[in-house]
Write a structure and sequence with these properties.
By secondary structure, this protein is an alpha+beta fold. Strands 1, 2, 3, 4, 5, 6 and 7 form a seven-stranded antiparallel beta sheet that branches. The N and C termini lie close together (8 Å).
């Protein structure tokens, strides 16, 4: 089982839209930041992936907006990977406000692409397990 992981992010004024809340596209940036932070926490960085000739890709993303985020709010962005035996894995993320309320839920279908073949590799968890210094963090 992967350990629970989250990273704090403060909503910056320039990320606010005309309605006075966080622009919808920025949620994806926060989710991406948490995913890379999670991989680094497991001892895996982009250099190791590139050295192996692979890179993570997002195939599908769904965002469920539940509460507004405004400038100055601090949110914890969680990240958990769910692997099976196929070419894809699931990423589940929650953006939680300081008061504990959930601002948004992000779910994604991801894979690991062979950068030469330009195709998804089989069993992406095995790639992460091979390259991470602490694969147990990822539940591997």
């Amino acid at each position: 089982m992967a350990e629970e992981f989250s990273v704090p992010v403060e909503v910056r004024g320039y990320e606010i839209d005309v309605n006075g809340h966080l622009n919808q596209a920025v949620y994806l940036q926060y989710a991406e930041h948490a995913r890379w932070s999670f991989l680094r926490h497991a001892g895996l960085d982009d250099g190791a992936l590139l050295g192996r000739g692979v890179g993570p890709v997002v195939l599908e993303t769904n965002i469920r907006y539940l509460r507004e985020l405004r400038a100055g709010d601090v949110v914890d962005v969680s990240c958990a990977f769910e692997f099976d035996d196929g070419k894809v894995f699931r990423v589940r993320q929650t953006l939680r406000r300081a008061d504990g309320s959930v601002a948004a839920e992000v779910t994604a279908v991801s894979g690991v692409m062979d950068l030469t073949e330009r195709k998804l590799v089989r069993n992406p968890g095995e790639i992460f397990k091979e390259l991470a210094s602490a694969p147990a963090v990822l539940g591997l």
